[in-house]
């Protein structure tokens, strides 16, 4: 801030001062003990002096600032000073002694003067009325304030305050806790109306807020005690109070009901003391003083101290602060009488042309040229504070009051055009000249226009001056004009001219606003007349009469003739003088202070903004749209105008604003800020938010496309629809119409896109292609309008439109009008390019006429026309119409013609014409028709035909009834009911079979009928329960199953009883029944094992084990049942070991196929349960499979492979004790046949041993002896193939690799070890095979040699990853060394073998028999057998090992 003035009083106290309200033109100051009030202007120049008879006690300006009132000591007079006359004062006798303070009413009419005795004096300045009020309070009045509605609030030292009306009558009075000071009224806006609140400081510690509408509910705002006493407070932002405490604290407290009393801000602003607070709404700032410092705070952020002034010699003495109402001055007083005045804000006064003029102080103007960098600035001193500035090519004009001073600038440079930004000069040399020589010449012209200046404008040759009297002066800028002694001085032209000086009724008119461009002077009058004058010829070129007065004009810069004017109704219009057309600016803000056009030289850029103190609104004017010229405001995206900025220029979406210091700041419009999509999306974090953002982007593009269409910019709209929205249909539509050249027709097409069809028709009819209106109405199915248009402009279209209209009328159910339209369509041939179109037109119309003839009741005409029709659909339609008219006979005949036999049959049924139905019965499929036909035949007692019809109608109950009751065909009915499972029919069958004494069939049909209890009772009474049980066991309830079981139990049929107990899940009873059955074929034991497997019960398992070991009946059972028990309990590993024992015994007995199948089945079950296969089982299966494979290989002439398999078996001949000699004999024969003579000799020599020689078959004995006598010393080497694990070469039939020590998988088709190439598996058993050999074997045998399932060679597919199979195979086979662990062998010294351990474990293990640790198995065995004696343990062990072989051998 800049200090303008400071004075020091010689008195002994502070100086009283008050700035003039409103215009802030004068400052009134009264020094202590000076008995004088000095009135000075804004520059400190003394204007007047008011002499007093004593000290000035108080003084106040009226709200309008036109009068100053003061009271003085030692006098009863009230002093009034008129600011308009600016001299002399008026004394008003109050008759009151001891005056203390005064205050003005809000309207400036009343003055209230209060005394220290509690009296009051009211003075009406307008009427001179005086109202003394004696005894308003018992003690002195210390504070007073008028409300905006005219109520006077007074606070007294008697600890009360009162409210009085304008006559001084008390309307309310209330006591307080202490003395009140600093009374203020404030206005708060709420949802319904303005609310006036009174606030005051009580006891210097709290603030009382009083609402006159709620007098009994005052609000007291208390503060923290550490803040101390309240020095001053000010209201701001309607519901917030800025409170300053004497201790230096600054606090903001809220009076908002939602946060009442809440401290919004708190700061220790001064170390020692705070003197006063001042708030300026014009600056949006607050000033505080204390500790010889003045701080300026931004009200938006009080922590932000924008300025600080230090008065070194005034520490602790600052007493009062005050801003002038316009915010330009800040004044502070001290306790010793000093007064300091600071310039807080310069007037935002400036003018922009090529250069820019702005104030740098109250008496200095700077002109800056921004075409150079840095800008060149020239300064000009003014004799007084300017009120208006103007710039031209050659001159700077400064207005003060009614005078204008014209300062000449050098050099003068002509600008190319108006308002095209700041860089007007395209010539670099000219720009350099301006930058280097910009200055003011000594030539200064001055002119007094006789009335205050309200507007000042200049062009190169002329000055245009608008004065307050309503006259517009136009005069040249020449020396001769300003030289009063010149004889050639041109005249001043004053407007309006005489012809425009008065209105139609003789009322005088005045110019209200004016503007100039390079070519025109434009002004408007109070009667709404808008005139354009050509500055070259000074001739009026356009005259426009508006309906009301015009108060502002804003022409568009550049070469455009458009302008915006604002009328007295605060409505704004865009006008073009070429056509005098007006477009109203929608939602024009009432607070608008100015309008700026976009000055960027871009074609079609019709953008302007309106601005007020806080907001900038962007508008877009579109001269060509679907609905004609339009203007719209972007109110949803306004731009905030920061405080203190004044817009001066709009350039390419950036608002150039002037600051109080004269500088320029750029403010981008919110409507022009470009946000890239990626930046926009980064604002949204979650997927849901980004999804919504994408939808917003899509909506924005859609709005852009629609806006482009609205502005008739087809290319932009098409581009958006194609590249962004991917709307192919819209792109095709726009492609179709983009070639339209006529604007009106194009408007019609776009109106169709927007759905405004009436407007589209108007455009089409006024265009050169009016048929588009016809096509539009036809496409909209608005046939009446289409026919009217066609009759007028395209008669050839009438038949087609009439036909389509007839079809629509027919669909709407209006046959009479449809008939007329069809006749009209047939009356005139269509203008068709092809005969087919004419034929199709006639066909449609004839068919429609026929239908409408029937619908209108003209049956004869319809039948006559229908006789020539062969189209099936027309026949069907006409038959339907006749049916609705109840003309069934004709309808049925037509339907038969059309092949609609079902519907024809329905009509014949209505007519009861069964003969007609009989003729077409074979062409029908409708069950409904068959059912009606069957009933008719049954009524005629033609039962066979009736039964057949019922069956075709799928009414099987009636079929069964006819068969039973009328045809006596019980067997046929039974077959039917068994098939249909109809309960009603089954009930009929039960009666028939009971009558025939066929109780088994009766039981069966009782069950079909859903009557199991009745069936059971008959079965019991007729002793056919076993038959009943066979029928019901799958579907019976548990109760029924138990009843059947009890019945069989009572009959002694324990096997049947056990089965039904098992089905009913009564496992203990089932096991009891099975164990009572005699052991014949083993069925009962198998069922007992199944029962234990389902029950998963330890007790039942023990009971069955005891039975199998012979503890129950003394007869040990076959060991195979232990294997089955393991399988039933899910103990697959134990089952595998038992299977090995059984298979070994079967192998010893020569039952090789049985042993093979047993091992294969167990192998596959172990694989399914993902349990490891014992190595012993795998080797036994391999050996047995090798033996079984020999026969197949020999049969398909694979003798070498067969011989190799026999050699493998012979090498393990001890495992085949029952057939040692036959196997060795076959080995010798096959080896000899395959050419393996060395091998044949080896096995022949084995046969010639004494123990085998006598057992050799006689027919082979001699041959074998010959082989032995002629030995072969060299054998045939066996071919080798790579090991699938390590690729080491291994003989084909060798299954162990010496290199990697792995056991190799073997091919089930050859017995050779597998190789990685040609690897395949059997689809059924999943054993590996070499694909070519396996397919060859399947082609010759058709069966898998391992599982004996029939397999097609085409089903064999190679394995993609044989190595995975190898890894699985290796993991699936149990290590031979781990096959018999101590846990499986039982504890040392125990006689219980592994089989018993498994059985014991199964009794205590989980349902699936998962392997448990050895310790748990031992514990379970101990628990299970804790009461068993050694004898029982020995029996279990015998059964599992030696006992098994012994019993089998026996």
Automatic annotation (TrEMBL):
Keywords: Cell projection, Cilium, Repeat, TPR repeat, WD repeat. It comes from the Eukaryota. It is found in: Cell projection, Cilium. Residues 16-337 form the WDR19 first beta-propeller domain. InterPro entries: Beta-prop_WDR19_1st, TPR-like_helical_dom_sf, TPR_IF140/IFT172/WDR19, WD40/YVTN_repeat-like_dom_sf, WD40_rpt, WDR19/dyf-2, WDR19_WD40_rpt. Residues 357-672 form the WDR19 WD40 repeat domain. Its main location: other. The keyword tRNA-binding does not apply. Pfam families: Beta-prop_WDR19_1st, Beta-prop_WDR19_2nd, TPR_IF140-IFT172. Residues 1407-1450 are annotated as: Disordered. The keyword Ribonucleoprotein does not apply. Residues 934-1076 form the IF140/IFT172/WDR19 TPR domain. PANTHER family: OSMOTIC AVOIDANCE ABNORMAL PROTEIN 1/WD REPEAT MEMBRANE PROTEIN, WD REPEAT DOMAIN 19. This is Uncharacterized protein. It comes from Polyrhizophydium stewartii.
């Amino acid at each position: 801030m800049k200090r303008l003035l400071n004075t020091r009083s010689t008195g002994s106290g502070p100086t009283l001062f008050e700035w003039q309200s409103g215009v802030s033109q004068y400052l009134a100051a009264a020094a202590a003990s000076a008995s004088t009030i000095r009135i000075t202007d804004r520059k400190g120049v003394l204007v007047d002096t008011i002499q007093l008879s004593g000290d000035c006690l108080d003084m106040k300006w009226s709200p309008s600032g036109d009068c100053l009132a003061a009271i003085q000591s030692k006098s009863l007079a009230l002093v009034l000073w008129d600011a308009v006359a600016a001299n002399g004062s008026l004394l008003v006798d109050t008759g009151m002694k001891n005056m203390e303070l005064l205050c003005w009413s809000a309207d400036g009419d009343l003055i209230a003067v209060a005394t220290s005795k509690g009296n009051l004096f009211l003075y009406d300045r307008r009427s001179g009325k005086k109202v003394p009020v004696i005894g308003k309070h018992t003690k002195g009045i210390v504070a007073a304030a008028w409300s905006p509605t005219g109520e006077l609030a007074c606070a007294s030292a008697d600890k009360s305050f009162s409210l009085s009306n304008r006559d001084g009558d008390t309307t309310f009075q209330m006591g307080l806790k202490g003395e009140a000071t600093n009374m203020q009224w404030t206005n708060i806006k709420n949802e319904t109306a303005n609310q006036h609140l009174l606030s005051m400081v009580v006891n210097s510690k709290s603030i009382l807020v009083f609402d006159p509408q709620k007098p009994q509910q005052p609000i007291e705002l208390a503060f923290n005690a550490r803040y101390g006493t309240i020095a001053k407070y000010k209201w701001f932002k309607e519901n917030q109070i800025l409170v300053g405490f004497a201790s230096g604290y600054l606090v903001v407290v809220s009076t908002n009901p939602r946060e009442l009393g809440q401290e919004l801000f708190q700061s220790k602003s001064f170390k020692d003391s705070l003197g006063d607070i001042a708030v300026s709404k014009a600056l949006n700032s607050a000033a505080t003083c204390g500790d010889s410092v003045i701080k300026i705070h931004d009200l938006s952020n009080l922590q932000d101290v924008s300025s600080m002034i230090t008065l070194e010699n005034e520490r602790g003495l600052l007493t009062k602060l005050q801003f002038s109402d316009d915010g330009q001055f800040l004044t502070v007083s001290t306790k010793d009488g000093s007064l300091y005045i600071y310039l807080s804000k310069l007037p935002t006064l400036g003018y922009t042309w090529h250069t820019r003029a702005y104030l740098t102080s109250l008496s200095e103007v700077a002109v800056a040229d921004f075409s150079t960098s840095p800008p060149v600035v020239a300064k000009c001193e003014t004799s007084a504070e300017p009120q208006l500035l103007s710039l031209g090519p050659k001159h700077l004009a400064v207005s003060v009051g009614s005078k204008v001073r014209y300062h000449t600038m050098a050099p003068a440079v002509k600008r190319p055009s108006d308002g095209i930004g700041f860089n007007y000069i395209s010539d670099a040399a000219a720009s350099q000249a301006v930058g280097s020589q910009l200055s003011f010449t000594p030539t200064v012209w001055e002119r007094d226009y006789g009335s205050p200046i309200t507007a000042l404008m200049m062009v190169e040759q002329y000055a245009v001056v608008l004065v307050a009297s309503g006259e517009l002066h136009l005069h040249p800028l020449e020396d001769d004009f300003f030289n009063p002694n010149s004889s050639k001085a041109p005249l001043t032209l004053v407007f309006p001219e005489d012809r425009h000086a008065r209105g139609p009724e003789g009322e005088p008119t005045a110019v209200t606003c004016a503007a100039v461009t390079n070519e025109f002077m434009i002004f408007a009058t109070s009667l709404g007349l808008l005139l354009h004058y050509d500055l070259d010829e000074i001739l009026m070129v356009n005259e426009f009469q508006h309906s009301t007065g015009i108060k502002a004009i804003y022409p568009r810069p550049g070469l455009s003739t458009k302008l915006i004017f604002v009328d007295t109704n605060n409505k704004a219009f865009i006008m073009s003088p070429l056509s005098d057309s007006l477009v109203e600016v929608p939602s024009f803000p009432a607070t608008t202070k100015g309008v700026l056009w976009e000055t960027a030289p871009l074609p079609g850029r019709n953008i302007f903004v309106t601005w007020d103190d806080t907001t900038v609104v962007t508008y877009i004017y579109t001269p060509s749209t679907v609905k004609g010229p339009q203007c719209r405001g972007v109110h949803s995206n306004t731009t905030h105008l920061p405080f203190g900025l004044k817009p001066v220029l709009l350039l390419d979406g950036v608002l150039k604003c002037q600051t109080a210091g004269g500088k320029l700041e750029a403010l981008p419009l919110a409507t022009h800020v470009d946000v890239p999509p990626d930046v926009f999306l980064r604002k949204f974090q979650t997927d849901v938010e980004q999804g919504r953002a994408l939808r917003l982007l899509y909506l924005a593009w859609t709005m852009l496309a629609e806006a482009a269409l609205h502005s008739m910019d087809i290319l932009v709209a098409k581009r958006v629809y194609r590249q962004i929205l991917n709307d192919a249909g819209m792109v095709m539509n726009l492609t179709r119409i983009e070639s339209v050249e006529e604007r009106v027709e194009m408007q019609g097409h776009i109106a169709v896109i927007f759905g405004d069809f009436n407007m589209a028709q108007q455009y089409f009819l006024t265009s050169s292609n009016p048929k588009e209106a016809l096509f539009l109405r036809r496409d909209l199915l608005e046939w009446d309008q289409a026919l009217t248009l066609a009759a007028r402009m395209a008669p050839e279209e009438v038949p087609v439109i009439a036909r389509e209209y007839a079809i629509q009328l027919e669909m709407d159910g209006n046959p009479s009008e449809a008939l007329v339209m069809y006749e009209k369509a047939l009356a005139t041939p269509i203008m068709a390019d092809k005969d087919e179109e004419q034929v199709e037109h006639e066909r449609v119309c004839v068919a429609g006429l026929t239908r409408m003839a029937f619908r209108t009741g003209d049956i004869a005409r319809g039948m006559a026309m229908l006789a020539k029709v062969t189209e099936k659909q027309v026949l069907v339609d006409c038959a339907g119409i006749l049916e609705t008219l109840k003309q069934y006979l004709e309808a049925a005949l037509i339907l038969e013609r059309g092949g609609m036999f079902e519907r024809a049959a329905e009509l014949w049924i209505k007519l009861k014409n069964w003969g007609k139905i009989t003729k077409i019965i074979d062409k029908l499929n409708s069950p409904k028709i068959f059912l009606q036909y069957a009933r008719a035949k049954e009524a005629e007692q033609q039962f066979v035909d009736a039964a057949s019809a019922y069956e075709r109608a799928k009414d099987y109950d009636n079929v069964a009834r006819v068969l039973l009751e009328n045809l006596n065909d019980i067997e046929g009915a039974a077959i039917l009911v068994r098939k249909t499972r109809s309960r009603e029919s089954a009930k009929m069958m039960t009666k028939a079979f009971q009558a025939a004494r066929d109780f088994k069939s009766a039981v069966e049909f009782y069950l079909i009928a859903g009557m199991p209890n009745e069936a059971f009772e008959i079965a019991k009474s007729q002793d056919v329960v076993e038959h009943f049980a066979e029928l019901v066991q799958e579907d019976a309830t548990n109760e029924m199953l138990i009843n059947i079981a009890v019945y069989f139990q009572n009959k002694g049929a324990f096997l049947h009883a056990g089965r039904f107990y098992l089905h009913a899940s009564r496992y203990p009873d089932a096991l009891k029944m099975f164990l009572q059955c005699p052991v014949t074929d083993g069925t009962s034991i198998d069922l007992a094992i199944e029962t234990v497997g389902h029950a998963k019960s330890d007790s039942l398992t023990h009971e069955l084990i005891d039975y199998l070991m012979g503890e129950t009946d003394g007869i040990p059972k076959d060991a195979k049942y232990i294997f089955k028990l393991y399988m039933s309990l899910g103990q697959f590993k134990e089952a595998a070991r038992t299977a090995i024992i059984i298979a070994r015994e079967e192998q010893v007995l020569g039952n090789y196929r049985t042993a093979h199948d047993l091992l294969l089945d167990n192998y596959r079950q172990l694989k399914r349960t993902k349990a490891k296969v014992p190595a012993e089982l795998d080797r036994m299966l391999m050996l047995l499979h090798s033996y079984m494979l020999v026969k197949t290989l020999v049969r398909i002439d694979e003798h070498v492979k067969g011989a190799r398999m026999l050699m493998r078996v012979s090498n393990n001949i001890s495992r085949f004790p029952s057939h040692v000699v036959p196997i060795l004999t076959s080995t010798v024969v096959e080896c000899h046949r395959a050419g393996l003579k060395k091998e044949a000799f080896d096995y022949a020599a084995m046969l010639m041993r004494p123990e085998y020689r006598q057992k050799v078959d006689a027919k082979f004995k001699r041959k074998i002896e010959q082989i032995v006598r002629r030995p072969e010393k060299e054998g045939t080497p066996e071919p080798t193939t790579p090991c699938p694990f390590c690729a080491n070469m291994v003989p084909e039939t060798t299954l162990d690799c010496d290199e990697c020590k792995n056991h190799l998988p073997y091919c089930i088709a050859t017995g050779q070890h597998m190789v990685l190439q040609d690897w395949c598996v059997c689809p059924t058993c999943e054993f590996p095979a070499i694909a070519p050999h396996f397919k060859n074997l399947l082609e010759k045998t058709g069966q898998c040699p391992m599982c004996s399932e029939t397999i097609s060679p085409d089903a064999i597919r190679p394995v993609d990853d044989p190595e995975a199979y190898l890894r699985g195979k290796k993991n699936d086979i149990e290590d031979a060394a781990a096959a018999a662990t101590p846990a499986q062998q039982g504890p040392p010294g125990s006689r219980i073998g592994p089989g018993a351990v498994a059985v014991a474990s199964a009794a205590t293990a989980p349902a699936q028999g998962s392997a448990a640790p050895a310790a748990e198995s031992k514990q379970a065995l101990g628990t299970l057998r804790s009461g068993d004696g050694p004898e029982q343990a020995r029996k279990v062990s015998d059964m599992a090992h030696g006992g098994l072989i012994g019993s089998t051998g026996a």
